Amino acid sequence: MTANSETMQYLLEPKAVAVIRKVDRTKVIQVIEALIEGGITGIEITLDSDDALGVIKEAKEKFAGRAGVGAGTVLNAKEAEAAIDAGADFVFAPILDKETIEVTKRHGKISIPGVFTPTEMQQAYEWGADMVKVFPASVVGAQFVKDVQGPLGHIPIIVTGGINVNNFKDFLKAGAVAVGVGGSLLNKEYIANGEFHKITELAIQYTGV
Ligand SMILES: O=C(O)C(=O)C[C@H](O)[C@H](O)COP(=O)(O)O
Asked: Which atom of ligand 1 is nearest to the CA of 135?
């Protein structure tokens, strides 16, 4: 299996990817462990997190063979380059930037830019994106995902932004290949209290493992 097909499996098999933003640096590795325990194997570290590149590097080494680790909130090519240097397997962005896609693909990594319109979806795909991320998805709802797939069914869609246990199944039923979940999975109180088993329980609500 190629490195990319393994990463694709980590992202798509559980159908839920964790978006880890600004989680306490001293707890983030335990949080990732708890997520993997709950069946989530796509681990996105947003670059606005404390020591994001250090976390990517550490998580890549520690969870090799168990999870795919990538970067989120990647806003330009320079940031993509730095994330890939740190070991990122995939590059998520909230926006669509041609150079970011090009740099990611030049390094042979998985590119998932953010889009919000059918035109942006097709543009992203033509620029080489592997999948697109509809963000913020809860604003347009599952019906958007269903409708755009009429003409644009060749483009795999991950949805993020406002995804929770009550709406994620609607998006999957509408045809999204996976959901990205941040706030509703990385419960701040549980993390502050060191209740990592509760993070595992939350993860299981998405993966059903
Ligand atoms: O910046 C990126 O690359 C992102 O992936 C943005 C995320 O999709 C959201 O930050 C997750 O949003 P919530 O699940 O509502 O917390």
From this structure: 8
